[in-house]
Amino acid sequence: MYDIQSRWKIENKRLVYYGLRRKEDLFRNTVKLSSAQEKIISSLPKELSVDEKRTLGELMDKIVLESSMKRVIPKSLDEATFCRGCAANDFIIPGIEFDEDGFCPICTTYEETKGLKSLLPVMNDFPVSTSSRFDVAVFYTGGKDSTYLLYYLSKVKKLRVLALTWEIPFMSESARLSIEGAKKSMENVEFVSAKINDSDLKKIYRKLYALSGNTCACPSLAYVLFYPLLVENKVPYFVAGNEPAQVMGLYYNHMAPKTAYSFAENAPMNFMYNIFRILTLRPPLKSGQFQSLATMKQLYRGENIFQKAAGYHNELVSNIVTAIKEVPSLTDPLRRAVRRSSRTGNIPAFVQVDLDWISGGVYDWRKTKDIIIRECGWVAPESVSKGLHTSCSIERCKEYTQFIRFYNMQSTMIPFSALEIAIAGRNRNLPRDEALREMKKELGFSLEEIGECEIMKGYLK
Fold first, then answer.
1. Whole-prediction pTM value?
2. Do residues 182 and 147 make contact, with C-beta atoms less than 8 angstroms apart?
3. Distance of CA 410 to the CA centre of its chain
4. Ranges of each domain in the chain
5. Contact call for residues 97 and 105 (beta carbons, < 8 A)
6. Residue 366 phi, psi (nearest 5)
7. In terms of Cα–Cα distance, which of 70, 183, 182, 192 is closest to 133?
8. Dihedral in degrees, nearest 10, Cα atoms 179, 249, 31, 406
């Protein structure tokens, strides 16, 4: 008796894999089928004739195999098989493949990915601006990563910082207290907050919930709100401080190719683009300005033709862009600001601080926590050992909805927290034992709906 291997699914005359394959097949997640192959596979499980096996060809053994060889997907962490090197396992990432030595593809591709620092230009030092009241701006949530970034820019580098906070309805109490603590302890930071009215926000959230199963739109809606303010104040740099595991997770989720991580340093490509701008009577772009324009344009235009042609699709951003269209007037100021800044060259450069580098080699959550509590008045969430995402009260809901959609093969997007906690463990940003403890006690990997989902649903009523 033969069957199709677990996590493969026929879609539009193709086989699609919902999982993370071995190193040698890492991104070979789709296989085109002939009509004859599709007919045979659709009829499985069954015995196969010699002619049918010949028709299936290379699909035999790896994808179509004897039923006894079909993987069983675990229904809990207790049943899961864990990677020998990190916290990855086949429950939180169903369909993950291990090599002969028991290592997952996140571990076996360490050498190939350790240089993937950012999709943005990396800057750890910034000049003092002579044309603005601010040297840099940051999107500040009150979480651990953005607080550490604010600490570095304000207290270590002594820069004038514009801290921008989007007041989401699900901000955790610890994040609110942390923002108040930062206001008291950072004299050279100007804090600005903005809130979308509930009527418009619910329109966006309801559409996003229908598409994604959750309402998580950070930081995209914050960009929509604050980019015009950055342009108006001529802020030279808009600084991101994403945790290293978050940045690398895009690669393993097939949302960003390796070339995207080196685009900022691709001198010939940037030169050709600037020649085009000069020919169209617009000023050439400095490092980070292309990334700023591309990010903001995507929020009202959607993915560009190059992304689509290359086969890289960010489902998360795509769904947010679709949801934003429920309130067309929201993006009008953004569109005008993008056009004005592109025409004048007054574009805040979108850059990334390397948290590993500024931490002395490894961004260690335990050390970071101690620093920001002492220096910034940061307030830890109730789960003091939590290492990922500390600013939102429905974070576990997002984790649950991403997980359950992927587990049920309704989305090819691997849950971000599943990738991030595995990568953080591999890179020693989070000790493996702590990663395992957080996975079991703090994160939303469950086959049954978790309580935090009621908070989100309650707001949508």
1. 0.89
2. yes
3. 19
4. 1-71, 136-356, 386-460
5. yes
6. -65, -45
7. 192
8. -50
Helix/strand/coil for 288:
coil
Query: Can you give the C-alpha Rg of the chain in angstroms?
Result: 23
Q: CA distances (Å), 131 to each of 159, 282, 346, in order?
A: 14, 20, 10
Summarize pLDDT for 60-102 with one digit per residue, the tens: 978 999 999 999 999 999 999 999 999 999 999 999 999 999 9
Q: Looking at the predicted structure, is the pLDDT value of residue 176 above 50? A: yes
Sequence-ordered list of residues with C-beta below 8 angstroms from that of 124, at least 6 positions apart, any chain = 353, 354, 357, 358
**What is the rounded (10 degree) CA torsion for 243, 249, 251, 254?**
-150
Round to whole Å and give the CA distance between 201 and 195: 9
Helices (H), 213-284: 220-232, 244-252, 258-262, 267-279
- Give 293-319 pLDDT, tens digit per residue: 999 999 998 866 555 544 556 788 899
Alpha carbons 296 and 337: distance in angstroms, whole number: 10
Residue 307 is predicted with a pLDDT of 53
Which of 354, 352, 358 has the alpha carbon at shortest distance from 371? 358
